[in-house]
Amino acid sequence: MDIAVKSLLLLSLACLASALPDLAGDGKHWAVLVAGSSTFSNYRHQADVCHAYQILHKHGIPDERIIVFMMDDIAENSQNPTKGIIINKPNGTDVYHGVPKDYTGEHVTPENFINVIIGNKKAMAGIGSGKVLESGPNDHVFINFVDHGAPGFVAFPSSTLSARDLANALKKMHATRMYSQLVFYMEACESGSMFHLGILPSNLSIYATTAADAHESSWACYYDRQRNTYLGDVYSVKWMEDTDRVGTSESLAKQFTTVKEEVKTSHVQEYGDMKFSTEEIQEFQGGVSGSRVESTLKRITNFGAGALPVKYPCKDSVASPNVPLAVLYHRLNDAETEGEKIEIRSMLAEELLERNQIAGVMENIVKNASSANGDLAHTILSTITQPRDFDCAESVVDAFSNMCYNVAEVDYAFRQVYALVNMCEHTAFSAEGILSSIRTVCGH
After folding, report:
1. Secondary structure element (H or E) that encloses residue 414, with its range
2. Percent of the chain predicted with pLDDT > 70
């Protein structure tokens, strides 16, 4: 093909990709992206959110309508060998460049997140960028949350958000007509519990998908030996690589089916209003499909072979709670000197000891609250129940965080929240009895 013709074609396609198609009724696209964790060991969460931003930005959603929460302690971290660069897959391109830093550091809190999505501009004045959702009744909203979870809770760097508080915020958004339709993608352990059992009503025009059901972990993948960490989470990379690969012209239902089939490690779920799941994902992730442009160019010109995104298998996936152990095992296998091996074995021993101590504290709390009823204690420690009594669950989780371990900061402590929820849901326990046991065991 003549170079001038090829250049003209490229220019035409670029022009095609520059305009975001309008939604019905002059509606606009809005998005809120949240990485709720901190520290380099949770690299993958911020990498997921940065990748999500690149997708929305590439597909035409302007930065003024994308709001990003992330600790921002990864890109320039001393453990990052490629300063200022974050990747989300093996040999991946930088996904950190250009990401808006609306709320970082101490501003990444559940309170700020709630105020942002309900459009409480007054509450956010003087905090971060101050941006909030200013969406209206014709607009489409996309929310993507990535972090650790527990039955009925998700974590932020220093505190937690309950399913009840999230549901109440979403109901308020609906009541104040802040959207026409809203899509929520959540990556977290037990993420299904945030929408399960009617917590998310089906009449709010909200469609949600989650990385896991209400009883299981989500999984990390793409271990990187240069960075000694996992680059992504299985559910997150699967939905984003699907969008990268096929563009935004497929339906929400098709993307859900694709991701559900490709995620072999957990049970991807969907909740809420299924009526609009047949709509194209461009209605929520933006309407400009860069991969379709590339595909069209390749077909017409036979030019740019290999330009389409590569589909990577997640063969090295690991349950999210076991990531710290898996990283240390990888490092031990890669260690070249006996001195390095001794140091890493010591770190492994410390990690295992801390886990045993945390589990022991929770076991003592349960046994104390169970009045030495061994069968009852065993039931509480060996099952997972969904929270319905959030007055109890929120109060005892807060108490455990304040008196024993901050569950938002100590990942393995967050794994013990299920036992507190179980006690709240069992008729043999009262909230005050559980609180008393926490005070007794943790010395306050």
Report:
1. helix 411-414
2. 89
Q: Please give the Cα distance from 101 to 24 (Å, whole number).
A: 30
User: C-alpha angle with apex 105: 55 to 68, nearest 5 degrees?
Assistant: 20
Portion of the chain with pLDDT greater than 90, in percent? 86
DSSP state of 266: S
Q: What does pLDDT average to over the chain?
A: 91
Q: Encoding tokens for residue 260?
A: 């559900």
**What is the model's pLDDT at position 311?**
64
What single-letter amino acid sits at 296? T
Q: Among 29, 59, 140, 189, which one carries the catalytic annotation?
A: 189
The SS3 call for residue 30 is strand
Verify whether residue 148 is a known catalytic residue. Answer: yes
The encoded tokens of residue 387 equal 């929270």
* Interval 83-89 mean pLDDT: 97
**Tally of residues, the chain:** 444
Which residue of the set 148, 196, 215, 330 is catalytic? 148
Tell me whether residue 442 is one of the annotated catalytic residues.
Answer: no
Please give the radius of gyration of the chain, using alpha carbons only, rounded to the nearest integer: 23
Burial of 405 from C-beta contacts in 10 A (0-12 / 13-18 / 19+): buried
Which whole-number Å values give the CA distances from 187 to 125, 143, 191, 422, 435, in the listed order? 29, 11, 7, 23, 30
